[in-house]
Amino acid sequence: YGNSRATLVTNEKLYNDDPILRRPFLGGSLISNSGIEIQIDEINRKLILQQTSSADWAYIVDASIDNWSLEFRGSNLGAINQSQRFNSYGMTGCLNLHSSNFYEAEILVNDGGCEDSLNIVNSTGVLSEITINRAYADALDLDFSNLKLNKLAINDAGNDCLDMSGGIYMVDVADLKSCGDKGISVGEASTLNASYLILENANIGVSSKDFSKVEILKASLKDSIVCTEV
Fold first, then answer.
1. Cβ distance 135 to 112 under 8 Å?
2. Cα(214)–Cα(36) distance, rounded to whole angstroms?
3. In sequence order, what DSSP letters do the residues of 193-205 get, joined into one string?
């Protein structure tokens, strides 16, 4: 993959003239708009995605992500443009992962300027660590997935730190700081089992709705206006 050539394709759903790039990645596809700079290190099993503008995005689909590290570096150049919520695939994230399997994977996202810094949809498996810093809106959005997170660290989200819907989720340790709205939002009949939650500075600590089930064995909540909401 490191030396593979990207294929320039045209997507009929594009809302502008920005072309997209598609290349093979871990049994699936890595798709992005043309602005993203991509580094694939097969030896060290690491993918680095660098924005050149705040509108750049990446989409990984049908991949088997086994002991890989994914890093998304957001751009601080220019104003963040939120006039378009969705990319041409209907995704709202800076880094989007769809229909993929994880085993001991690590993900780092810094300075995400999208509605979701990281969006994982319809995926399964184990992630050893997810770290997100300085998210413009929601930091992590998990949808319709069955996932175990060994460690989750989020620092500074403009909206929710962790948003879960329509799935089954397990979290060993979550360390969430400076969440603009909710620390954790669980909806659409999801199940969340967490061993240890550290949460500092949120409007609402933990919100459970839509017949969701939340169990947190141990928690430390500080500087939250409302600790729990049902």
1. yes
2. 37
3. EEEEEEEEEEEEE
| Residue 83, domain member (yes or no) | no
For 35, other C-beta atoms within 10 Å of its C-beta total 16
Burial of 172 (0-12, 13-18, 19+ CB in 10 A): middle
Instruction: Give the SS3 label for residue 74.
Output: coil
Q: pTM value?
A: 0.90
Q: Does residue 54 form part of some domain?
A: yes
Task: Kindly state whether residue 1 falls inside one of the protein's structural domains.
Answer: no
Distance CA 48, CA 73 (A): 8
pLDDT at 18: 64
- Please give the angle made by the CA atoms of 184, 51 and 106, to the nearest 5 degrees: 50
Count the neighbouring beta carbons within 10 Å of the beta carbon of residue 17.
6
What is the domain extent for residue 56?
Answer: 7-77+89-229
pLDDT 10s digits, 5-42: 343 333 334 444 467 899 999 999 999 999 999 999 99
Q: Number of folded domains in the chain? A: 1
Is there a domain that residue 118 lies in?
A: yes
CB 89 within 8 A of CB 110: no
Strand duo 20-25 + 28-33: pairing:
antiparallel
Q: Which CATH number goes with the domain that contains 130?
A: 2.160.20
